[in-house]
Automatic annotation (TrEMBL):
Compartments, as annotated in UniProt: Cell inner membrane; Cell membrane
Keyword Membrane tagged: yes
InterPro entries according to UniProt: Cell_shape_determining_MreD, MreD_proteobac
Described purpose of this protein according to its UniProt entry: Involved in formation of the rod shape of the cell. May also contribute to regulation of formation of penicillin-binding proteins.
Protein name (record): Rod shape-determining protein MreD
Membrane topology: Multi-pass membrane protein
Annotated PANTHER family: ROD SHAPE-DETERMINING PROTEIN MRED (PTHR37484)
Keywords of this entry: Cell inner membrane, Cell membrane, Cell shape, Membrane, Transmembrane, Transmembrane helix
Amino acid sequence: MSRPRLGGLWFAGSLLLALLLMLVPLPAALAPCKPYWPALVLLYWSLESAERVSLGLAFALGLAGDLMDGVLLGEQALRLTALVFIALRFRARLRFFPMGQQTLAVLALLVNDRILALLVRLFEGDALPPPSWWLSPVIGAALWPFLFLLLDDLRVRLRLS
C-alpha cells in the first residue's frame, strides 16, 4: 500500500477510533471522568498535520459525534470547531512547547470546551451539572502526554507525514 494512502487510512482510522471510544459506556461513578476523545485526537492532528485538519472536518466530526451520542445536534460540532480554530491559530507556539506546558495548554482548551458545552446546555434549559462534570478536562489533560507520544510513535513508525 502506498504511503499517502496508508497515511490517509491512519488519519481517518484514528478519528473513527476516537468517535468509537466516545461511545464506550462507563459505570455511573466513572462517567464524569471519561475524556473527550475526539477533541484530543483532533488536537493531535491539528498540531502535527495541520494540512489535513480544517474547520469543516472538525464540524463534520462533531456532527457525527452528535448523531452517535444522541445530544443536541450541533453541540459537539460547535465545540470541536472552536477547539480546532484555537489550535490552528496558535499551532506554531503549541507545537514547540515542552510537554508540561503543552499539557497545560491542552487543559485550557478542554476547559474552554467544557464551558462551551455548559453554555449550550444552559441555553437548552438543562440544570447546572455536578462539580464532578469538570473532571473530564483534567483527565484528558493527564492523558495528553501518553496519547501524544502513542500517536506520534505510530505515525513515525509508519513514516507518515
